[in-house]
Amino acid sequence: MAKLIVNVNKKKSLINRNIYGHFSEHLGRCIYEGLFVGENSPIPNVKGMRVDVVNALKHIQIPVLRWPGGCFADEYHWKDGIGPKENRKRMINTHWGGVLEDNSFGTHEFMELCGQLGCEPYINGNVGSGSVQEMSEWVEYLTFDGVSPMADLRTQNGHEEAWKVKYFGVGNENWGCGGNMRPEYYADEYRRYQTYVRNYGTNKLFKIACGANSDDYNWTRVLMENARQYMHALTVHYYTLPNDSWVNKGPAVGFDEETYYKTLKKTFKMEELLDKHIHIMDQFDPEQKVGLIVDEWGSWYDVEPGTNPGFLYQQNSMRDAMIAGINLNLFNKHSDRICMANIAQTVNVLQAVVLTEGEKMVLTPTYHVFDLYKVHQDATLLESYISAGMVGTEENQIVDLYESASIDQDGSIHITICNLDLSCEKVIEGQLLGATCTKVEAQIVKGA
Questions:
Q1: Quick check: is 173 catalytic?
Q2: What is the mean pLDDT of residues 392-401?
Q3: What distance in Å separates the CA atoms of residue 389 and residue 333, rounded to the nearest whole number?
Q4: Which of the listed residues 76, 129, 227, 317 has the most CB atoms within 10 Å of its CB?
C-alpha cells in the first residue's frame, strides 16, 4: 500500500491558471476544420467557430490560447489576414504541408474565438521574417484606442473598440525555424523589437522572449544575462518522443510495454529541464521577476498512415493521458517560476485535446485529464509526498505514482495522482496534515 501525505499547513506558490493553456497554429487541421469552419459551413458555428469545439474547450476552462504559431508565426504577416476575406492575400504554408493559406482566419477571427472561449489571447509576433514596424503596428492595431493609422484601419475593418491583449511573444523558436539565430544575436534583436511593442492607454503588455529548445541551457543564460530587464517571461520547448530520432519517432498506437515506459521516462526529462533552466534564471533573477513559460509541450509521434506528413495528425491514448498528467503535476510543483504552459496543440495536431472529422468530434484521453486538473487553476500548491515505488523494464524505470496537491479559495483540497504502472491498480492511504476531511469525492480516467 502506498502512502500519500498532504500538508495543508505548508502552502506554497499560486498555481497560475495559465499553466493549463493551449496552443493553436496554422498547421494541418488545427485552425481550419478544427476550430474554424467559416460562417457558410453546414457544421454548427457562431461567426465561423465550431460550436461543439468551443463548448468543449469552455468546459475545461481554457485560460489562454497561443496563436498564430509556432514556426508559422515567423512567416506570418498580419496585414494579410485583415479586411474582406475575398481580398486577403494568399500564401503557401511552407512549414506545414506546403498547402495554400487563404488567411480567412486572421486577427479579428482569433480575437472573436478568444471572446467565445472566454480566454486570454497570447499573440506571437514575427521576428524571423517580419520588421520592427510590422510588429509595432500590429500592437497598435490591436490595442490603441484613439485616432491613429492602425486604429483607423481597425475601425474600417469593423472593430472600432480596441481589444485587450496582455500576452505578446516576440518571436518563436528563433534558434531554429524562426531564423536560425545565435542567442547573442537574438538577445539584441529581442531588445530592439520589444522597444516598439508599446503599451497603449490602460493595456499593459506582458512581453515574452523566445527561450531555449529543450536542454540548450546556454540560450537561457545568454538571454537572462543580456535581456532579462526587458522581458516578463522566457519560454522553453520540450516534446516527448518515444525514440531519439525525429525521422522515426514511433507510432501513436500499437506500442509495446517497453515503449510505454520509455516514453514516460522521456516525459520525466521535463523535470530535469525545468530545474536546470530555473537554476540559471535564479542566478540572474533571484527575485523571480521573470516567469518561465513552457509554451510548447506534449507527445510527438509519427503521423497516422495516409495523412499529410506536414499536418502532424496523431491518435491519442491513455499513454498520452499519463504524459499530460505528469507534465501538469510537474508544472504545478514548479509554479513559483512557471506562469504559463501551452499544450501542443488544441485540435487535430500532435497531443490534441479534441479530434474532428467533418461534423464529428471526439474528446481525447488528454482532454479528460485537463478536465480533472482544471480544479488546480489559481489554487495554492500544497506540500505533498507519495511513497512511490519503481516500475518499468530493465532499461526504463520510472516511479509508479506521481502527484500534486492544491487548496482553492473555498478551502477545498484537490489531489491529482498518476498511476503509471501499466499492469497494476494501486491502493493508496491518504493523510491530511492540518485539515480534517468532511467529504471526499474521486474521479478516475482509465482505459477500457
A1: yes
A2: 96
A3: 20
A4: 76
